Amino acid sequence: MTPDPTPSAASGPRDSVAAELDSWIGQMSGADPTTEAARQRIGRVSRQFERLLAEVAAGHQLTVGDWTALSALQRSGPPYQRTPKQLAEELGVTAGTMSVRIDRLTQAGLVEPVPAADGRSRPVRLTDLGRQRWSRATRDRTTREHDLLADALNPHELDQLNHLLARLLTRLEIEYGPAPRHGQQR
Questions:
Q1: In the chain, is it the N or the C terminus that has fewer CB atoms within a 10 Å radius of its CB?
Q2: Residue 74 near residue 66 (C-beta atoms within 8 A)
Q3: Would the CA dihedral through 167, 169, 170, 175 be positive or negative?
Q4: Is 27 contained in some domain?
């Protein structure tokens, strides 16, 4: 017998997957309801975190793409600079997309061009304003994510969730290779 893929009434209100699963699982020949419910929930949770990210970015006058570019520069460490090509490759975007993003960030005073020896691919680096904006937005995002998770799960449950998700991600990466990092289009 397949376990019920919906949360029990004792665990709180029904989520959107529980509300819809019965209506469409019958249309999926051979699909295991528990597996389908888990896959649907993982996807929907991911999309909800993307919504939160976009909301926080907008609150700091950034697009999600701008924020990922600032994050890549921040992760690069001092002197917090990369060439447009390096950024495009790291973020999995085209050179044209990266050029538009860099122009927007430069106009906002968040990055600045750095003189290059060959003059062809001028690196850009985070400005002090860029690091401050990135830091405030990241602090806001991590606080909101922490609060959401702490409201839904106790510390032991969060540890369990991390353990289970790590096992699942490991299995998927064995099968399909490393998962793209946030912001990558691959």
A1: N
A2: no
A3: positive
A4: no
